[in-house]
Amino acid sequence: MPKFTPKEWDEVRKKFRTSIMADTSLHSLAQNLEGDAWPVQGDEEKPSKYIDFTYDELLMLPEIAGQSARADLLVGILKETLAFDDPFGDMVEQVEESAAKENPILKTLARLEIPPAFPLQLVNLTEGTRIVCASEGVKTLGEFANLAQQMSTRVVIGGDFRSLLNALTHGDEAGIGEFLPFRRGALGLHLPEALGLAVAELSRADQIGLALAYGATLPPAQAPVAQKLDSARREALERQVKLRLDAAIAWFKDQHAAACTQIKQGQAFERYLVPINDPAREAIVAQLARASFGAGESKLASEAATEPKKTGFFARLFGRG
């Protein structure tokens, strides 16, 4: 006999229609519950594949037909996933209403003078998290705070979404700095760090490869990690980073104007980038954002242009002329 009734299926599938977990792998949901594994293989094996069907239709699907135990397992996975983060049942709406009034993330933003309107586009997040936020219409930190507050009682979340959530909830300044252009011990957000995060979206291998292509001097241990870049790949990476750099400069327009004045008065652009605190990222920003700050020729380019060429015997020995 089936363990679950058609009414229970209708209840759980209705809740999953508005859940962010509707497109999460059934294999992952089952693993999180530490119960029986979902036996059907395939990337399409998600709750969204099944929740539009009535119970009778569900039993007729090729993956379920003749195996009522699978139907019970599916209902069980969805019910337990909801119960895992919704243990209070009918009290959830009251909890969420109360939590909205005491949102710890918004409190952290206010205390550290981080603007809630800061665009999520400039936050250092993985593509998967960006897709989740975009699907919920979330475009700013303030909207992220509200989404996270609602999700925290309803769904299982992980990855960098949870890491950012935890850092903002607990006011972890070091953790916040991994995602936002925040300077530990200071208030507000800062353009140099934002420029560094514009490069952070590249893989570390691409970052090192691009920095070395610009002639940067990096620790020897990083060289084997570098991605070898042909001209097409290098140009594609440069276009990608420049888009982020331009977006950061546009947001921090006042800080950008002040920096341009400082550089015009003689401050080295490389010195302005020191807060990035990452030689590879600093080298990339120094190369790709110079024109936007009215900076002169880069130090690396200058050294390359003025380095004396070897001649005669030494030229033949070292392959240069």
Notes on the structure:
This protein has 321 residues and is mostly helical. It has three domains: 6-85, no CATH class; 91-179, no CATH class; 191-306, no CATH class. It is built from 19 helices and no strands. Helix 1 (6-17) packs across helix 5, helix 12 (191-200) runs antiparallel to helix 14 and helix 14 crosses helix 15. It starts with 5 loop residues before the first helix and ends with a helix. Mean pLDDT is 83; it is low at 87-100 and 301-321.
Helix/strand structural class = mainly alpha
How far apart the termini lie comes to 86 Å
Task: Count every helix, treating DSSP H or I runs of 4 or more residues as helices.
Answer: 19
- Compute the number of strand runs: 0
Low-pLDDT regions: 87-100, 301-321
Strand content: under 5%
Task: Sum up the structure in keywords.
58% helix
Q: Could you give a quick summary of the protein structure above?
A:
Helix content is 58%, strand content 0%. The chain has 321 residues and is mainly alpha-helical. It folds into 3 domains: 6-85, no CATH class; 91-179, no CATH class; 191-306, no CATH class.
Topology summary:
Layout: H1 6-17, H2 26-33, H3 47-50, H4 55-60, H5 68-85, H6 92-101, H7 104-111, H8 127-135, H9 141-151, H10 159-170, H11 173-179, H12 191-200, H13 204-213, H14 231-251, H15 253-264, H16 269-272, H17 279-288, H18 299-306, H19 312-318
Helix pairs in contact: 1-5, 2-5, 7-10, 10-11, 12-14, 12-17, 13-17, 14-15
